[in-house]
Amino acid sequence: MRIRLAFTALLILPLAAAQSVYVQPAGYETVEGNSSSGIPFSYASARVQQSDSNRIGVVMPAISMLRFRRDRNAGASGVARTLNVGVTMGKNDIATFSSSFGNNWLGAPTTVYTIRSTNLPDITLPPPAFPAPFTVPIVFDVPYYYDGVDSLMWEIQLGSAVTGTYSLDWVSAATTTNGATTTALGTGCTTQNGAMSLTTTFTATATALNLTWSTASGPSSVPLTVLLGLSDPNLAIPGFCANIRSDAIISVPLGDTGPTGSLAQTMSFPWSPAFAGWDMFTQTLAPDASQAAFPLALSNGRRSPMPATAGGPGSNGIKRTYSTTSLNATTGSTPSVSAVVTEINY
Q1: Cα–Cα distance between 179 and 202 in angstroms, integer?
Q2: Burial of 48 (0-12, 13-18, 19+ CB in 10 A)
Q3: Among residues 173, 164, 232, which one has the least CA distance to residue 31?
Q4: What is the spatial distance between Cα 16 and Cα 276, in angstroms, rounded to a whole number?
Q5: What is the pTM of this model?
Q6: Contacts of 316 (CB under 8 A, 6+ apart)
Q7: CB 234: neighbour CB atoms within 10 A?
Q8: Which of 11, 114, 286, 345 is the most buried (most CB within 10 A)?
Q9: What percentage of the chain exceeds 70 in pLDDT?
């Protein structure tokens, strides 16, 4: 009998450990939201509902936990605190989602976390990298079975004194991720407009990689070309007015400079995860008859890291309403297409 029980336990343990997660809004697993929200954990009494239609057709058989994460700009007020927190979960028709808390439920909701004194962690210290991990958990008393029919909705009721804003990551619009800080490599040639310089801005949306090159003080009204490469040869060629700072795997015409030798140009490509982690080495060049030897002017080079991730999409298929005055409020704010970034464990 003991052998049979032990064998059964060995079979069950891997199944128990194999928990899935869904982050709402979708696309924000590794992307910071575009703003922050102190709702609900910054108020003495509050009520908030968040409905999501993106999981219709997907069964989540045993939702066991909600987890939240701090916003990038969470400050010193986000200290640990003890609040009275309760959670209910059920279904909603997002097409008729309104400011009426009671009318939003399709059928009676399930109390998954009975309102009681709950400890929330300190979120004042930033993590090594953003977005922050999901370190603000509410572990359910009983799991919730979502059958994939209609929108999934959760509600948090909160009451008790608090101290300061508890700032959580929040999404109300599409976000853009940026590459890390770029590095200037050397100096550019001196033209009739000054020292020719290059700056870069590399960003990513949910679908596109956008590369912007901005040249200043180049030769006036001449065609400008960007050299694109993956390394910096730092090559001095006799007669050239600046070192070569890109291995120039490819070169791309950007257009003509203006009267002051300036030109900013953006090129867009479909985003691919393969871009993450690349460093691109670039330099711009243009014909320049004023140079003493070769009639060519070069900018400084730039080492420009690609964004680590794609940006995030808009918070489509999600709505929320809230009251920051009472956990027993019957009416909340005008519904918004926005969401606290939430990890749902099931």
Answers
A1: 5
A2: buried
A3: 173
A4: 34
A5: 0.83
A6: 25, 54, 337
A7: 13
A8: 286
A9: 95
